[in-house]
Amino acid sequence: MNPYLDEKNMKIQKAVIPAAGFGTRFLPSTKAQPKEMLNVVDKPLIQYSVEEAVQSKIKNILLISSRGKSSMEDHFDHSPELERFLKEKGKQGYLKEVKRIGELVDLNFIRQKEALGLGHAISLAQSYVGNNPFSVLLPDDIFDCPTPCISQLMDAFSKMKASIIVLGRVDREGTKKYGIIKPKQVSERIFQVEDLVEKPGPEKAYSDLGVLGRYVFTPEIFQAIKETKPDTKGEIQITDAIKHLLKSQSVYGYLFEGTRYDAGNKMGYLQATLSLALKRPDFKEQLKDYLKTVKVED
Ligand code: UTP
Predict the structure, then answer these.
(1) What is the pTM of this model?
(2) Which of 24, 52, 118 to mutate to test the pocket of ligand 1 (most atoms within 8 A of CB)?
(3) N- or C-end of the chain: fewer Cβ atoms within 10 A?
């Protein structure tokens, strides 16, 4: 067990949301606006992760931002002019929603000056989280789960008392897109990570268990990131840092319960938008009727 993790500081109180990437898979939409501010049904992508953390009783969130992304900060800030305008026009529903967003959580921001990889982005959170375990949520992944995904992961963390990453079953194509673990099963949903390979492809994959965008880390991940060399693109990858951490500590994986959408690429984004809209009582019937009328040309 990690020497820092006595019962007192086992509780995860902080979340880190890295959102400083370029979003190249979404160009040209992301040329002049952050990917994280793209609308999914009726709120920006980033709000899903923030709300997941809030629902999981995390009160402090650090958002890793970058140049040209200040609209994320504005989104979670108060907006006195807009609030006054909505009040004057009697638009109470919108007013309530706009105020709610500004009061969601204690949100802090830090900028990653250069996109040097996810590992590097997470390392910027060190002084914010200190010597405590912490959670990381990648905003590209929208989880639709009976219990919020990060809450499931935090429960598993409190059992294993070691860094733990969220896993999903992937198909052959998925082995080319995700980090794949070499698993040793511990319980129905928990696996010890014996090794981890980034995008191995179906021939070299140890399993069909892929690493998705939710993590709980012990503070030793920061040292592991420091000791991790940049890849050929000059980026410090979190997968490499986790591999490094494995040399000194156990790391576990947790197979989550629910559905996950990879909204960081165009197809996953369309699937998320459609599936989540079909679950909304205010859109469901109309959208179902509309879809029946859509003619698909070959
Ligand atoms: P991705 O590689 O999936 O996102 O990184 P991206 O870089 O924004 O998009 P593409 O690949 O160019 O299309 C996963 C998460 O890590 C963050 C991203 O913002 C995203 O939430 N990230 C990535 C950083 O914060 N900094 C980086 O240097 C790289």
Answers:
(1) 0.95
(2) 118
(3) C
